[in-house]
Amino acid sequence: MKLSTKGRYGLRAMIDLAIHSKENQVSIKSISERQEISENYLERIIALLKKAGYVKSTRGAQGGYMLTKKPEQISVGNILRALEGDLNPVDCSLINDDKVCLESGLCVTKFVWKRISDSINDVVDNISLQDLVNEQIEIDKSQLSR
Amino acid sequence: MKLSTKGRYGLRAMIDLAIHSKENQVSIKSISERQEISENYLERIIALLKKAGYVKSTRGAQGGYMLTKKPEQISVGNILRALEGDLNPVDCSLINDDKVCLESGLCVTKFVWKRISDSINDVVDNISLQDLVNEQIEIDKSQLSR
DNA sequence: ATCATATCCGAGTCATTTAGTAGGAATTAT
DNA sequence: ATAATTCCTACTAAATGACTCGGATATGAT
Lengths: 146, 146
Known about the structure:
The first copy, chain A, is mainly α.
Protein backbone atom coordinates (compact mmCIF):
# COMPACT_ATOMS: atom_id res chain seq x y z
CA MET A 1 0.00 0.00 0.00
CA LYS A 2 2.72 2.40 -0.95
CA LEU A 3 3.21 4.92 -3.68
CA SER A 4 6.23 4.29 -5.85
CA THR A 5 9.10 6.68 -6.44
CA LYS A 6 7.36 7.74 -9.62
CA GLY A 7 4.58 9.36 -7.68
CA ARG A 8 6.82 10.79 -5.03
CA TYR A 9 9.49 12.15 -7.31
CA GLY A 10 6.97 13.25 -9.86
CA LEU A 11 5.07 15.39 -7.40
CA ARG A 12 8.28 17.04 -6.31
CA ALA A 13 9.21 17.65 -9.93
CA MET A 14 5.85 19.28 -10.55
CA ILE A 15 6.24 21.55 -7.54
CA ASP A 16 9.66 22.44 -8.81
CA LEU A 17 8.24 23.23 -12.23
CA ALA A 18 5.46 25.30 -10.73
CA ILE A 19 8.02 27.39 -8.91
CA HIS A 20 10.63 27.65 -11.65
CA SER A 21 8.85 27.50 -14.97
CA LYS A 22 6.91 30.71 -14.72
CA GLU A 23 8.81 32.40 -17.51
CA ASN A 24 11.62 30.11 -18.57
CA GLN A 25 11.80 26.58 -19.73
CA VAL A 26 13.22 24.36 -17.03
CA SER A 27 15.64 21.60 -17.96
CA ILE A 28 15.66 18.11 -16.56
CA LYS A 29 19.16 18.79 -15.41
CA SER A 30 18.19 21.72 -13.20
CA ILE A 31 15.26 19.88 -11.65
CA SER A 32 17.51 16.91 -11.13
CA GLU A 33 20.04 19.03 -9.27
CA ARG A 34 17.54 20.81 -7.08
CA GLN A 35 15.52 17.70 -6.30
CA GLU A 36 18.40 15.23 -6.19
CA ILE A 37 16.80 12.79 -8.55
CA SER A 38 18.83 11.19 -11.34
CA GLU A 39 18.43 12.84 -14.73
CA ASN A 40 17.70 9.62 -16.51
CA TYR A 41 14.98 8.57 -14.19
CA LEU A 42 13.43 12.00 -13.93
CA GLU A 43 13.22 12.08 -17.70
CA ARG A 44 11.05 9.00 -17.69
CA ILE A 45 8.81 10.39 -15.03
CA ILE A 46 8.33 13.72 -16.76
CA ALA A 47 7.57 11.88 -19.99
CA LEU A 48 4.54 10.41 -18.22
CA LEU A 49 3.43 13.82 -17.05
CA LYS A 50 3.83 15.16 -20.54
CA LYS A 51 1.83 12.30 -21.99
CA ALA A 52 -0.91 13.07 -19.49
CA GLY A 53 -0.92 16.68 -20.67
CA TYR A 54 0.28 18.51 -17.58
CA VAL A 55 3.66 19.42 -18.97
CA LYS A 56 4.92 20.61 -22.34
CA SER A 57 8.43 20.51 -23.69
CA THR A 58 10.76 22.34 -26.03
CA ARG A 59 13.64 20.42 -27.49
CA GLY A 60 17.12 21.63 -28.24
CA ALA A 61 19.39 24.10 -26.54
CA GLN A 62 17.71 26.35 -23.98
CA GLY A 63 14.79 23.99 -24.20
CA GLY A 64 13.12 22.33 -21.27
CA TYR A 65 9.75 21.87 -19.67
CA MET A 66 6.88 24.04 -18.53
CA LEU A 67 3.49 23.40 -17.03
CA THR A 68 0.61 23.49 -19.49
CA LYS A 69 -1.76 25.00 -16.94
CA LYS A 70 -1.64 27.19 -13.89
CA PRO A 71 -0.71 25.35 -10.70
CA GLU A 72 -4.17 26.17 -9.38
CA GLN A 73 -5.63 24.06 -12.14
CA ILE A 74 -3.58 20.95 -11.55
CA SER A 75 -4.48 18.79 -8.60
CA VAL A 76 -2.26 16.38 -6.75
CA GLY A 77 -4.75 13.74 -7.84
CA ASN A 78 -4.12 14.57 -11.50
CA ILE A 79 -0.42 14.14 -10.97
CA LEU A 80 -0.53 10.99 -8.90
CA ARG A 81 -3.01 9.21 -11.16
CA ALA A 82 -0.88 10.08 -14.18
CA LEU A 83 2.11 8.47 -12.52
CA GLU A 84 0.65 5.67 -10.47
CA GLY A 85 -2.47 4.72 -12.32
CA ASP A 86 -5.77 4.73 -10.46
CA LEU A 87 -5.52 5.11 -6.72
CA ASN A 88 -7.81 2.23 -5.87
CA PRO A 89 -6.50 -0.12 -3.20
CA VAL A 90 -7.48 -3.14 -5.31
CA ASP A 91 -7.94 -3.91 -8.99
CA CYS A 92 -11.65 -4.50 -9.12
CA SER A 93 -13.47 -3.68 -12.30
CA LEU A 94 -16.70 -3.36 -10.38
CA ILE A 95 -15.40 -0.94 -7.80
CA ASN A 96 -17.25 1.97 -9.36
CA ASP A 97 -20.21 -0.06 -10.31
CA ASP A 98 -23.25 -1.07 -8.32
CA LYS A 99 -23.20 -4.58 -9.68
CA VAL A 100 -22.75 -7.41 -7.26
CA CYS A 101 -19.64 -9.48 -7.82
CA LEU A 102 -20.25 -13.02 -8.91
CA GLU A 103 -18.53 -14.39 -5.90
CA SER A 104 -20.68 -13.01 -3.14
CA GLY A 105 -17.90 -13.56 -0.63
CA LEU A 106 -15.70 -11.14 -2.48
CA CYS A 107 -18.41 -8.61 -2.77
CA VAL A 108 -18.62 -7.39 0.80
CA THR A 109 -15.05 -6.30 0.81
CA LYS A 110 -15.76 -4.20 -2.26
CA PHE A 111 -17.59 -1.70 -0.09
CA VAL A 112 -14.45 -1.25 1.92
CA TRP A 113 -12.23 -0.81 -1.12
CA LYS A 114 -14.64 1.69 -2.61
CA ARG A 115 -14.73 3.78 0.51
CA ILE A 116 -10.95 3.81 0.76
CA SER A 117 -10.68 4.70 -2.89
CA ASP A 118 -13.18 7.53 -2.61
CA SER A 119 -11.47 9.00 0.41
CA ILE A 120 -8.04 8.96 -1.20
CA ASN A 121 -9.33 10.58 -4.36
CA ASP A 122 -11.21 13.15 -2.37
CA VAL A 123 -8.07 14.19 -0.56
CA VAL A 124 -5.78 14.39 -3.58
CA ASP A 125 -8.33 16.09 -5.80
CA ASN A 126 -8.70 18.84 -3.26
CA ILE A 127 -5.07 19.79 -3.04
CA SER A 128 -3.77 21.82 -5.95
CA LEU A 129 -0.20 22.23 -6.99
CA GLN A 130 -0.54 25.87 -6.01
CA ASP A 131 -1.46 24.85 -2.47
CA LEU A 132 1.83 23.02 -2.23
CA VAL A 133 3.77 25.88 -3.73
CA ASN A 134 2.26 28.13 -1.08
CA GLU A 135 3.24 25.68 1.64
CA GLN A 136 6.73 25.55 0.23
CA ILE A 137 7.03 29.31 0.34
CA GLU A 138 5.93 29.33 3.96
CA ILE A 139 8.49 26.70 4.86
CA ASP A 140 11.25 28.57 3.10
CA LYS A 141 10.33 31.73 5.01
CA SER A 142 10.42 30.01 8.38
CA GLN A 143 13.73 28.36 7.53
CA LEU A 144 15.24 31.72 6.68
CA SER A 145 14.26 33.30 9.97
CA ARG A 146 16.14 30.75 12.03
CA MET B 1 -0.75 1.83 -4.34
CA LYS B 2 -2.43 -1.53 -3.98
CA LEU B 3 -3.19 -3.81 -1.11
CA SER B 4 -1.60 -7.22 -1.39
CA THR B 5 -3.46 -10.51 -1.36
CA LYS B 6 -2.63 -10.76 2.33
CA GLY B 7 -4.94 -7.90 3.12
CA ARG B 8 -7.62 -8.92 0.70
CA TYR B 9 -7.66 -12.61 1.57
CA GLY B 10 -7.17 -11.89 5.24
CA LEU B 11 -10.21 -9.64 5.43
CA ARG B 12 -12.32 -12.30 3.75
CA ALA B 13 -10.97 -14.90 6.14
CA MET B 14 -11.92 -12.74 9.09
CA ILE B 15 -15.42 -12.23 7.78
CA ASP B 16 -15.66 -15.97 7.32
CA LEU B 17 -14.47 -16.52 10.89
CA ALA B 18 -16.92 -13.95 12.21
CA ILE B 19 -19.74 -15.83 10.56
CA HIS B 20 -18.63 -19.38 11.29
CA SER B 21 -16.66 -19.36 14.52
CA LYS B 22 -19.45 -18.34 16.85
CA GLU B 23 -19.52 -21.70 18.65
CA ASN B 24 -17.11 -24.01 16.88
CA GLN B 25 -13.50 -23.85 15.95
CA VAL B 26 -13.08 -23.27 12.27
CA SER B 27 -10.32 -25.08 10.41
CA ILE B 28 -8.10 -23.57 7.75
CA LYS B 29 -9.43 -26.21 5.44
CA SER B 30 -13.04 -25.09 5.72
CA ILE B 31 -12.20 -21.41 5.26
CA SER B 32 -10.02 -22.37 2.34
CA GLU B 33 -12.90 -24.18 0.68
CA ARG B 34 -15.47 -21.46 1.21
CA GLN B 35 -13.15 -18.63 0.25
CA GLU B 36 -11.22 -20.43 -2.44
CA ILE B 37 -7.85 -19.54 -1.04
CA SER B 38 -5.12 -22.17 -0.84
CA GLU B 39 -4.72 -23.78 2.57
CA ASN B 40 -1.02 -23.19 2.70
CA TYR B 41 -1.24 -19.54 1.98
CA LEU B 42 -4.22 -18.95 4.22
CA GLU B 43 -2.30 -20.54 7.04
CA ARG B 44 0.39 -17.93 6.72
CA ILE B 45 -2.11 -15.12 6.66
CA ILE B 46 -4.01 -16.33 9.69
CA ALA B 47 -0.72 -16.72 11.53
CA LEU B 48 -0.29 -12.96 11.17
CA LEU B 49 -3.77 -12.31 12.49
CA LYS B 50 -3.09 -14.60 15.41
CA LYS B 51 0.17 -12.86 16.17
CA ALA B 52 -1.70 -9.57 16.17
CA GLY B 53 -4.15 -10.97 18.67
CA TYR B 54 -7.36 -11.04 16.69
CA VAL B 55 -7.53 -14.79 16.34
CA LYS B 56 -6.82 -17.70 18.65
CA SER B 57 -6.14 -21.30 17.74
CA THR B 58 -6.55 -24.82 19.07
CA ARG B 59 -4.23 -27.44 17.73
CA GLY B 60 -5.02 -31.05 16.98
CA ALA B 61 -8.09 -32.87 15.79
CA GLN B 62 -11.27 -30.80 15.89
CA GLY B 63 -9.05 -27.79 16.40
CA GLY B 64 -9.13 -24.62 14.41
CA TYR B 65 -9.46 -20.91 14.83
CA MET B 66 -11.80 -18.47 16.49
CA LEU B 67 -11.91 -14.72 16.89
CA THR B 68 -10.61 -13.41 20.20
CA LYS B 69 -13.13 -10.59 20.30
CA LYS B 70 -16.58 -9.81 19.07
CA PRO B 71 -16.74 -8.69 15.44
CA GLU B 72 -18.00 -5.32 16.67
CA GLN B 73 -14.70 -4.83 18.45
CA ILE B 74 -12.44 -5.56 15.51
CA SER B 75 -12.10 -2.89 12.86
CA VAL B 76 -11.12 -3.34 9.26
CA GLY B 77 -8.19 -1.08 10.11
CA ASN B 78 -7.02 -3.50 12.78
CA ILE B 79 -7.07 -6.31 10.28
CA LEU B 80 -5.46 -4.48 7.39
CA ARG B 81 -2.70 -3.00 9.48
CA ALA B 82 -1.94 -6.42 10.94
CA LEU B 83 -1.55 -7.81 7.45
CA GLU B 84 -0.17 -4.94 5.44
CA GLY B 85 1.72 -2.88 7.98
CA ASP B 86 0.87 0.78 8.35
CA LEU B 87 -1.40 2.18 5.68
CA ASN B 88 0.71 5.21 4.92
CA PRO B 89 1.29 5.90 1.26
CA VAL B 90 4.99 6.48 1.90
CA ASP B 91 7.55 5.36 4.44
CA CYS B 92 8.31 8.60 6.17
CA SER B 93 9.34 8.46 9.78
CA LEU B 94 8.20 12.03 10.24
CA ILE B 95 4.74 11.55 8.84
CA ASN B 96 3.14 11.69 12.26
CA ASP B 97 5.52 14.24 13.54
CA ASP B 98 5.47 18.00 13.26
CA LYS B 99 9.17 18.17 12.55
CA VAL B 100 10.31 19.59 9.29
CA CYS B 101 12.22 17.21 7.09
CA LEU B 102 15.84 18.10 6.53
CA GLU B 103 15.33 18.37 2.83
CA SER B 104 12.83 21.16 2.62
CA GLY B 105 11.80 20.05 -0.86
CA LEU B 106 10.62 16.73 0.48
CA CYS B 107 8.74 18.33 3.24
CA VAL B 108 5.85 19.85 1.36
CA THR B 109 4.79 16.53 -0.01
CA LYS B 110 4.65 15.21 3.52
CA PHE B 111 1.45 17.17 4.07
CA VAL B 112 -0.10 15.32 1.19
CA TRP B 113 1.01 11.92 2.44
CA LYS B 114 -0.24 12.66 5.91
CA ARG B 115 -3.66 13.68 4.69
CA ILE B 116 -3.96 10.58 2.56
CA SER B 117 -2.83 8.43 5.44
CA ASP B 118 -5.28 10.03 7.85
CA SER B 119 -8.17 9.61 5.48
CA ILE B 120 -7.46 5.95 4.83
CA ASN B 121 -7.14 5.20 8.51
CA ASP B 122 -10.28 7.12 9.25
CA VAL B 123 -12.24 5.00 6.79
CA VAL B 124 -10.94 1.62 7.88
CA ASP B 125 -11.12 2.35 11.58
CA ASN B 126 -14.78 3.18 11.23
CA ILE B 127 -15.84 -0.06 9.64
CA SER B 128 -16.10 -3.01 11.99
CA LEU B 129 -16.04 -6.65 11.08
CA GLN B 130 -19.64 -6.79 12.22
CA ASP B 131 -20.59 -4.13 9.69
CA LEU B 132 -19.29 -6.38 6.96
CA VAL B 133 -21.01 -9.42 8.34
CA ASN B 134 -24.24 -7.47 8.27
CA GLU B 135 -23.62 -6.47 4.66
CA GLN B 136 -22.93 -10.06 3.80
CA ILE B 137 -26.19 -11.17 5.34
CA GLU B 138 -28.06 -8.57 3.31
CA ILE B 139 -26.40 -9.71 0.12
CA ASP B 140 -27.17 -13.33 0.81
CA LYS B 141 -30.82 -12.43 1.37
CA SER B 142 -31.13 -10.53 -1.88
CA GLN B 143 -29.41 -13.31 -3.77
CA LEU B 144 -31.87 -15.82 -2.36
CA SER B 145 -34.92 -13.86 -3.49
CA ARG B 146 -33.89 -13.83 -7.12
C1' DA C 1 -1.65 -46.70 21.78
C1' DT C 2 -2.78 -45.31 17.33
C1' DC C 3 -4.47 -42.58 13.94
C1' DA C 4 -6.59 -38.97 11.63
C1' DT C 5 -6.94 -34.21 11.92
C1' DA C 6 -5.11 -29.93 12.87
C1' DT C 7 -1.96 -26.14 13.69
C1' DC C 8 2.92 -24.50 13.51
C1' DC C 9 7.00 -23.10 11.17
C1' DG C 10 11.26 -22.53 8.42
C1' DA C 11 12.86 -22.73 3.84
C1' DG C 12 12.54 -22.40 -0.99
C1' DT C 13 10.64 -20.93 -5.66
C1' DC C 14 8.96 -18.35 -9.42
C1' DA C 15 7.04 -14.26 -11.58
C1' DT C 16 6.34 -9.53 -11.46
C1' DT C 17 7.35 -4.96 -10.35
C1' DT C 18 10.34 -1.34 -9.01
C1' DA C 19 13.90 1.55 -9.67
C1' DG C 20 16.76 2.59 -12.00
C1' DT C 21 21.06 2.82 -16.14
C1' DA C 22 23.00 3.25 -20.75
C1' DG C 23 23.45 4.99 -25.06
C1' DG C 24 22.30 7.04 -29.01
C1' DA C 25 18.96 9.68 -32.21
C1' DA C 26 16.61 13.98 -33.05
C1' DT C 27 16.11 18.93 -32.36
C1' DT C 28 17.35 23.75 -31.86
C1' DA C 29 19.49 28.27 -30.00
C1' DT C 30 23.81 30.40 -30.36
C1' DA D 1 29.12 23.61 -36.48
C1' DT D 2 28.40 22.83 -31.76
C1' DA D 3 26.63 22.51 -27.39
C1' DA D 4 22.54 21.78 -24.99
C1' DT D 5 18.61 19.60 -24.74
C1' DT D 6 14.58 16.33 -25.22
C1' DC D 7 13.22 11.75 -26.94
C1' DC D 8 13.27 6.81 -27.11
C1' DT D 9 14.41 1.86 -26.77
C1' DA D 10 16.57 -1.59 -24.47
C1' DC D 11 18.67 -3.52 -20.62
C1' DT D 12 19.54 -4.89 -15.60
C1' DA D 13 19.66 -5.67 -10.60
C1' DA D 14 17.16 -5.88 -6.51
C1' DA D 15 13.09 -6.20 -4.05
C1' DT D 16 8.54 -7.74 -3.41
C1' DG D 17 4.58 -10.61 -3.91
C1' DA D 18 2.40 -14.80 -4.06
C1' DC D 19 2.77 -18.68 -3.24
C1' DT D 20 4.44 -24.07 -2.29
C1' DC D 21 6.68 -27.84 0.39
C1' DG D 22 7.67 -30.76 3.96
C1' DG D 23 8.02 -31.96 8.31
C1' DA D 24 7.33 -31.12 13.44
C1' DT D 25 3.99 -30.86 16.99
C1' DA D 26 -0.44 -31.35 19.32
C1' DT D 27 -4.89 -33.56 20.36
C1' DG D 28 -9.58 -35.69 20.17
C1' DA D 29 -11.67 -39.98 18.89
C1' DT D 30 -11.44 -44.95 18.54
